UniProtKB/TrEMBL annotation, chains A, B:
InterPro entries: HTH_HxlR (IPR002577), WH-like_DNA-bd_sf (IPR036388), WH_DNA-bd_sf (IPR036390). The lineage of its organism: Bacteria, Bacillati, Actinomycetota, Actinomycetes, Mycobacteriales. It comes from Rhodococcoides corynebacterioides. Residues 17-115 form the HTH hxlR-type domain. SUPFAM superfamilies: Winged helix' DNA-binding domain. Keywords: DNA-binding, Transcription, Transcription regulation. This is DNA-binding HxlR family transcriptional regulator. Gene3D superfamilies: Winged helix-like DNA-binding domain superfamily/Winged helix DNA-binding domain. PROSITE patterns: HTH_HXLR.
Length: 129, 129
């Protein structure tokens, strides 16, 4: 993956800008839900997996690794028997999560409108047959 | 795809909630960029494809179809020779795009921090070898 040229301004429209990668990390199906869940507070792996309904262990693990690499979450091994791993947002992750939760709430609020639009579109599509 | 139970509240955390589909439509790599581009004003297909750097004709076409079905954009055939197709945001699409553009601008502004975090993470990873 090519690194960013620091003399260029970030531009998500440009295919080579690595802000696109970050955008994908935070808006991927699981990245988004993991950040939104961690916005509720720190989670251990198993509890986070139950919260993010439908994610596999492997996918959640990969997702968390990407978010940790981006500096959005921390991974702390708790010294106990058996050892537990806890995930939490960093300050940057919190700033990101606040915006994502806002977006999620907006999308949830539009669900009736979107559902109606889909039904209308599908009816239009079959009307011509 | 199962339709929503209208007696349930939208909950993107639930695997069966179709707000997850909308979320994916608007935050997919190309959905996001198409909405953000149309936030600048209406676009014809070819111009939109140039703006959304890197998208194939087929992918852009599929993306626009999903966004139209969700009621976020309109597709208008302009009566001229040769006929042209113009895409524009609906009111709902504009509300969505405003939020997405805000998110994009935030992500772009975090690029130096994220890039530094990645470098640190990668250095940590190899330090142990």
């Amino acid at each position: 993956m090519p690194d960013t040229d620091p003399t260029l301004e970030a531009d998500v429209f440009s295919r080579h800008c690595s802000s696109r990668d970050t955008m994908q990390d935070i808006t991927s199906r699981w990245g988004l839900l993991a950040l939104a869940a961690l916005h509720e507070g720190p989670y251990r792996f198993g509890a986070l997996r139950r919260r993010v309904d439908g994610v596999s262990e492997r996918m959640l693990s990969q997702t968390l690794q990407r978010l940790e690499r981006d500096g959005l979450i921390t991974r702390t091994v708790l010294e106990q028997i058996p050892p537990k791993v806890e995930y939490a947002l960093t300050d940057l992750g919190r700033d990101m999560a606040v915006r994502l939760v806002g977006l999620i709430e907006f999308v949830e609020s539009t669900l009736p409108t979107v559902t109606a639009a889909r039904a209308e579109y599908d009816a239009r599509g079959t009307a011509g047959i």
